[in-house]
Every structure is written in C-alpha cells, then in structure tokens.
Amino acid sequence: MATYLYRIGRWAFRRRRLVGGLWLGALLLAVAAAALAPAGEDEDLAMPGTESQQAFDLLDERFPQSNAQGAEARLVFRAPAGQRVTAEANKAAVEDAVDTLDQGRQVESATDPYTTGAVSEDGTIAYSTITYTADAVDLTAPTKSALEDAADRARDAGLTVEIGGSALDAEEELGGTTELIGVSVAAVVLVLALGSLVAAGLSLLTAFVGVAIAFGLVSALTVPLGLTSTVAILTLMLGLAVGIDYALFITSRFRDERARGSEPEEAAGRAVGTAGSAVVFAGATVVIALVGLGVVGIPELTKMGLGGAGAVALAVLVALTLVPALFGFFGRRVLSRTVRKAGRRGGTPPVPDTTARAGLGTRWARFVLRRPVAVLMVAGLGLGAVALPALSLELGLPGDESKSVETTQRRAYDLLSEGFGPGFNGPLTVVVDMSKAKDPRSTTDLVTRTVGSVDGVASVGEPVLDRAKDTAVLTAVPRTAPNSAETKDLVHAIRGAVPGVEATTGAAVFVTGTTALNIDISEAMSDALVPYLSVVIGLAVLLLTVVFRSFLVPVKAALGFLLSVGAAFGVLVAVFQWGWAADLIGIEQTGPVMSLMPILIIGIVFGLAMDYEVFLFTRVREAYVHGASSGEAIVHGFRHSGRVVAAAAIIMVSVFAGFIGMHNPTIQTMGVGLAAAVAFDAFVVRMAIAPAVLALLGRRAWWLPRILNRVLPNVDIEGEALSGRVPAPAASAAGPEGGVRRLPVGRD
Q1: Could you tell me where the DSSP H helices lie in 157-263?
Q2: 3-state secondary structure of 118
Q3: Which of 77, 267, 565, 707 could form a disulfide with 262 if both were Cys (CB 3.0 to 4.6 A apart)?
Q4: Is residue 610 part of a domain?
Q5: What is the rounded distance in angstroms from the CA atom of residue 595 to the CA atom of residue 574?
Q6: 171 occurs within a structural domain
Q7: 669/642 same-domain check
C-alpha cells in the first residue's frame, strides 16, 4: 500500500494543475447541485419491527387520508390573571384569531376551542389546532406571518399566546458564532503547530473543499434519499474535523522529509506513502464503524452513518491527492521559516538533531517512562471516576420540552402541560385491528375500558373508525410527562393488559404514538449498545493486529477506547441528565440523553481513536523494528508525532465543541459527547495510558504468535518498502549513535 500511495503522491505533485482542476470542477458541480436541489423535510424517526412502528404502518394503510395532511400548529391562549378564556371579551379575541386563520392560504382547518372542548378545567387556558395543506418546509412566508399575526391580534387583546406544533419548525442554521470560534481555534493551532501561515491555510483549504463537496452532495440528495438536517450537520462536523487532521498529518510528514533533504516531488511521494497509509487506514476504520450503524435497524441512524462515512471518504481522497498537489503550487512556503532561511543561504536543509534540546513530546515520554505505574494509575482511575455517571444513563428523544424557554414552542408546551396535565403533550395512540374480530362495537368498548383502567391513564378518547369499520383508533392521555419513567412503565402496562382482550375478541391491539415510538427506539438502542460495542472492539483488535503485528498493543488500544467512551458517556449524563455546567452551554432543561447518541458516538470515536493510535504508535513501531529499545522507540514516536497528534486532537475538539452553541438538542449532545471523547482518548488514553502500558510491557508489547505472523497480511503502514528510495538520514532517531539496525518486522 505504501508504494502505491507513494506513486499517487508523486503523480499528484507532478500533475497538480490537473488534480486541482478536477477538484475545483467537483466543488462547483456539488455547489450547483445543492443550489438547484429542492428543500427537504425532516422525517420522523422510524424503528421497523417494533410494535409502535407496526401500528404506524397499519394507520398508513387504513387511514391514508389522515396521514396525508401537512404541517400542524397550535395556538395556545391564556387569559389574564384572575380571568377566564370563556369570558366574553377573551372569547371574542380567541375566535377572532381563529377565524382569521381559518380563511388563510394553505390552511385546511382551524378548530374552535369552544366547540371542540379544548378549554382547561379551570377555564384559564385554551388551544386551537391549525392544520395546513402543505408540509412545514413548503409553507410560504405569508402563511407563517399570518400565524404570527393571529397570535399578535390576541395578544393585543390582553391574552398570552404561544405557538406550538411543526409549522414554525425550521432547519437548523449551519453557521454561527460558536462554529466560527471552533474553526478559528483550529486555525490558530495549525499555525502554532506548523509555524507557517501557508501550511496552516493549506490544511484548512483542503478540509473546506472536502466538506463543501460532501455537504453539497448531501443537500442534493436530501429529497431523493430522505436525508435530514442532522445528517447534513454531522457531515459538516466530521468532514471539517478529519479533513483538517488528515491534511495536517501529511503536511507534517512532507515538511519532515524536506527537512531531511528530499526533493519536493520525492518528499510529497514519501509523505503520502507513509502518513498517507495511516490516513487510509484511519479513514477506513471510521467509514467501517459509521457504515456499521446500519445494522441497528433505524433508518435515520443509517443515513447519518452513511453521510458521515461519505464525508470521511472524501476527506481521505482530498488528503491523498489535493494536498500533495498544493505542495507543488505553494512550493517552499509550506516549509518552516528555519528551513526556508537555510535554503536562501544556499545551505543544505538541516537534518533533525537528536541531541538538541528535547521538546515537550520527548520530555513527556521520558516522564512516563520513569513513572509508568503512577501515570497509569492516575489516568486510569481518573477516567474511571469520570465514567461513573454513565451507570445512570437514561435514553430518550427530545421534544419541545427540551427547547429553550426563549422559544414560543417551549412556552406553548408548558402552557398545555399546566392547563391539561403533563401527559397532554405526549398522548398514546391505541390502534385496534378488528379485521378478524367478531363484534367490532363490543371490541372497541372492551379496549376502551381496559386501557382506561390501567393505573396512570388520565383519560381515553372516543374511538375513531376507518371507512371499512375494521380499524379503531383511541387516544389515551397519560398522567405523567412524555419522557418520564412513569410514562415508560405505563406503555408497558397497557401492552401487558391487552393480550386478554386480543384472546377474547380476536382483535390485534397496538400501542403507538410519538411517545411510545420514542420509548421503543430508546429500548432498542439500549439493547443494541453492547452487541455493537462488541463488534467495534473486535474490529479494532483485528485491524490493529494487522497494522502493528502485535497481540497486546491492539488489546491495549481497545481497552483504552472503552475507557474514553465510558468517560464521554459519564460527561453526557452529568451535563444533560444531572445539569452539571448545563448553563454554560445553554441547556435549560435536563432529561434523558438522546437515544441515538451512545451508538453514534461509539461509531465515530472508534475511528478517531484508531486515528491517534495509528499516527502516534506507527512511529514507535518504526523505531522499534529499526533496532531501538522499547523505551527509545516510545521517545522516538512522541518526538516525531506527539506534537502533531496533540495539535490534531485540539483541532478536532475545537471543531466538535463549536457545534455545542447550536440550539438543537441532538447537535448539542453530539458536540459535547464527541469533544469529550476525543479529548479523553487523545490526551489521556493515547498519550498517558498507552505509553505507560508499553513501558511496563517492554519487548513483550510487540510479541505476535508465529502462526499469526505468517498468516496476517503485511500492510506496510510504516512505509518499509520506501526505505531504499532515498538516502538514509544522517542521524537515526533510534539512538544517539545514529546507526540503524534493520530487524525482521515480525521480531518478538
């Protein structure tokens, strides 16, 4: 692989105008496709195979007319203090607002709260349901303005009015202050790490190219594939993070090769052949983990995984081709100031001096080698302590209750809870399939009595039958809030009470609705978490065994991955469930962690963790197979890769943290979880625990059974095949003597 990538690097450097033109053309096509593509609408989550999803499918079949409706809004009215909405003046104001909407464009109907019974028992709160003929994304600006104007008319009359429902839901803005801050931090880190504005700009430029193409493709495919805004944001988030990192690794290796005296084209080839090999492997692990999300069985999660995988694959292609092409365009400006000055004086570029003052990476590695047990204990116990809250992890799906109190949707939610009970915002839908029932009328009566008798049900509405009279729909309102544990128990209690009805009547009874579906999805995620984690861990051990040709190094890497993921889950629980530091990131309502997050974070962080494992410890292995002792190899790896890996981790954390400021619970959770996981994995696991374990294991860390040594393929990720293409450096990093003693790759 190293030889093949070496040729790609040299070819891209030579044909830089062709490569640059091809990528520019791809960028323009992607932007044009995105601009011409119609806007899509976020679809509700689905979970094939669950009872709630079966009921939704049955409703689609038996009630097609009711499922073809468009967006919906609720105008929630509250009377002034000491008054009722049934008072003559207040009633006139409410009816005036409703009548204004009922005759508006794109409005199918607007209900009168006084004829539908949508008035609270104490008479202080009422609501009107407005149904539109178009989806939320197809509602025109005048239609939305009419809804706001109707609310303002009632407000002018002295009423408190809030708007709920999907009509005002909008796509999350993809740009903002916090995202710009994250990218700005990444730019500063790049400049400090590379010591060159041009080199830093190169990494940012290539990352933006890859992200723009990926985002354009996702936007163009939104309607045909039913993609959501969350898929687009994940694509943007991952594409930026890995795109900058991958370009940084190859650029850093190119500068090293140039400093050692390689010609520009040769240095580009060797950079892509060595660091590029690690990029390919690291990118492949991220892609595999993200594509593997499809096995969970949730279409939305599958789309998120595929979108993120596409962004990562594009980042790899950009790093392997556009980055070396830009080396040719920018020339010596990519190099550090020291190397450029040496070239201007006509001297030979300096070879790295192993006797010079040790950098931070070297000093840290030597510190770990002197105190491996202490470092291992402090880091391991620290991560374990941070992971403890994960034992209290609760999963759920956010609704209007998780939005900021500054939004009218959240205030409408609170008013409805106050006036009609906390369960009003999360009603359960009971679907009765009576196609095989003997007596439909008695069946619906029995189901109504059975559901109403379950403890925790506040009320059961009158059954609604389809045209064929073989399907009935009942609405059961819980006494508790949608995301509460009591409502979850209620759903199971109702499902446990209906088998007797089914046996007696021959009907099939399903409990569904948004609340029930959220509960089913959360439970499915909990059940899938351990199997998916087992698959990911197994994959990590297998891939790393092939790369490092070692048995214990992959096991160490996998266990470290578990620690970092567990600590990230602990942070999510502490912030989103317990409310620790929630005010700092704008979280006003605590509750269950987004049910998709644990598996999504595992899939993403697995690949990113392998990034740092490969980039850092391939240099360690490279020194070891060249004759360095275990301790010298660790120092060598940190001397040459520690600073770059630290910079890459800071960049990735900054990019992920930049999305925390978006007022979207899903994106906020993703940003916090990924930023925490990357920080723990890069700085605690890879830079503290991993070298401490290697120091304690010594030569045993690189042991591999002979049978595996013969069977496993040699992927040559260190670029051994390239060692004879240029003269050896004047000094070896293996030791102060500078000699290089070649040893068999499979040495134990």
Answers
A1: 177-194, 197-220, 222-225, 229-259
A2: coil
A3: 267
A4: yes
A5: 16
A6: no
A7: yes
Per-residue pLDDT for 726 more than 80?
no
Q: Do 347 and 370 fall within a single domain? A: no
Rg (CA), the chain: 30
Cβ proximity of 164 and 409 under 8 Å: yes
Tell whether 22 and 120 lie within a shared domain: no
Q: Are 273 and 262 in contact (CB under 8 A)?
A: no
708 and 571, same structural domain?
yes
Size of the chain in residues: 748
Percent of the chain with pLDDT over 70: 89
Q: Angle of helix 552-572 relative to helix 514-548, nearest 10 degrees? A: 150
Q: Which residue has the tokens 């830089």?
A: 16
User: DSSP class of residue 119?
Assistant: B
Three-state SS string across 223-251, please? HHHCCCHHHHHHHHHHHHHHHHHHHHHHH
Rounded to whole angstroms, the Cα distance separating 169 from 627 reads 62
Domain count, the chain: 4
Report, as an integer, the average pLDDT of 381-391.
Answer: 94
pLDDT band at 39 (very low <50, low <70, confident <90, very high): low
Mean pLDDT of 431-438: 89
The SS3 of residue 129 is strand
Q: Please spell the DSSP secondary structure of 622-641, one letter per residue.
A: HHHHTT--HHHHHHHHIIII
Full domain range(s) for residue 665: 361-408+529-713
Q: Which of 142-146, 382-386, 564-568, 584-588 has the lowest mean pLDDT?
A: 584-588
- Amino acid (1-letter code) at residue 589: Q
pLDDT-derived band at 175 (thresholds 50, 70, 90) equals very low
End-to-end CA distance of the chain: 24
pLDDT digits 0-9 by tens, 564-611: 999 999 999 999 888 888 777 777 677 788 888 888 888 888 877 877
Q: Which amino acid is at 369?
A: L
Do 24 and 160 fall into the same domain? no
Cα 503 → chain centroid: 44
User: How far is the C-alpha of 75 from the C-alpha of 146, rounded, in Å?
Assistant: 12
SS3 107: strand
Q: Do residues 87 and 31 both lie within one domain?
A: no
300-338 per-position pLDDT tens digit? 888 888 888 999 999 999 999 999 999 988 877 777 666
CATH number of the domain where residue 653 is located:
1.20.1640.10
Of the three residues 518, 547, 580, the one that is the final residue of a domain is: 518
Q: Are residues 542 and 679 in the same domain?
A: yes
Looking at residue 734, what is its pLDDT? 39
CA distance 247 to 252: 8
Question: Do strands 457-460 and 593-594 pair parallel, antiparallel, or not at all (unpaired)?
Answer: unpaired
> Does 587 or 368 have the greater pLDDT score?
368
184: confidence class by pLDDT, cuts 50, 70, 90? confident
The neighbour count for residue 424, using CB atoms within 10 Å, is 20
In the prediction, which pLDDT does 126 show?
Answer: 95
| Three-state DSSP state, 13 | helix
Q: What local confidence, expressed as pLDDT, does residue 644 receive?
A: 84
- Whichever domain contains 472, its CATH number is 3.30.70.600
Instruction: Supply the DSSP symbol for 574.
Output: I
Instruction: Judge whether residue 350 has pLDDT over 80.
Output: no
User: Hey, how many other C-beta atoms are within 10 angstroms of the C-beta on 706?
Assistant: 9
- Rounded to the nearest 5°, which phi and psi values hold at 369? -65, -30
- Asked if 599 and 296 touch (Cβ cutoff 8 Å), the reply is yes
Q: How far apart are CA 651 and CA 240, in angstroms?
A: 9
At a CB cut-off of 8 Å and minimum separation 6, what does 578 contact?
389, 590
Q: Please, which residues bridge with residue 110 across strands?
A: 130
Mean pLDDT of the chain: 83
Is the same domain home to 253 and 317? yes
Q: What is the pLDDT of residue 78?
A: 96
Residue 63 lies in a domain: no
pLDDT over 50 at 748, yes or no = no
Longest dimension (CA), the chain: 99
